[in-house]
Specification:
The protein has helices at residues 3-9, 12-41, 47-50, 53-73, 80-89, 94-125, 128-164. With 169 residues, the chain is mainly alpha-helical. Helix 2 (12-41) packs across helix 5 and helix 2 crosses helix 6 (94-125). The longest helix is centred in the last third of the chain and has 37 residues, at 128-164.
């Protein structure tokens, strides 16, 4: 079995199984890292945070609603690790976490083995100069987007500071 076979000729079930196992392993690994971090903090000066009222409230929230948050995070980009680590750090019960992460991994595998592979194949068919040009256009758009939001947040912060300053009369 070569990588060429996996990219071009692999049956859907093989691709789906690969993505499912990858998502399931990653989600569980992140959960256990979160649990280990929470356990490691218990004998330090941060222990008061782990046993404070806000943390216990967060634990109860994740224990109750994590069954929805965990699978939904697999449909997003960028917060999967945060949600899974938070579930581990707050000690979400495994009887709730394992079914939730399984549903999320199934959804993620379905998306990536269908839409994701279609996008991958489309990229393979494109010419390299077009790909480089597209990446440059995306980079420029992201740069101006971030620059605009930074300036906008500075204006909002400055306006808030001006509103809180007493009048100098």
């Amino acid at each position: 079995m070569t990588i060429d076979w996996l990219v071009h000729d692999a049956p859907f079930l093989v691709t789906f199984t690969f993505f499912f196992c990858t998502a399931l392993l990653r989600g569980n690994a992140t959960y256990w890292v979160g649990r280990a971090v929470a356990r490691g903090v218990e004998n330090t000066r941060y222990q008061r945070i782990m046993h404070g009222i806000m943390y216990r409230r967060a634990q109860r929230f994740i224990a109750r609603w994590g069954m929805l948050a965990v699978p939904l995070c697999f449909l997003t980009v960028g917060i999967q690790s945060a949600v899974n680590a938070s579930a581990g750090a707050s000690r979400m019960p495994l009887r709730r976490y394992l079914p939730a992460v399984t549903v999320g991994a199934l959804a993620w595998a379905l998306i990536y083995s269908t839409i994701g592979m279609a996008v991958f194949y489309a990229w393979l068919l494109l010419d390299w100069p077009f790909i480089v040009a597209a990446l440059l256009v995306i980079a420029v758009i992201v740069y101006f987007f971030l620059r605009y939001h930074k300036r906008n947040s500075e204006r909002i912060r400055d306006a808030a500071c001006d509103d809180t300053m007493p009048d100098q009369a």
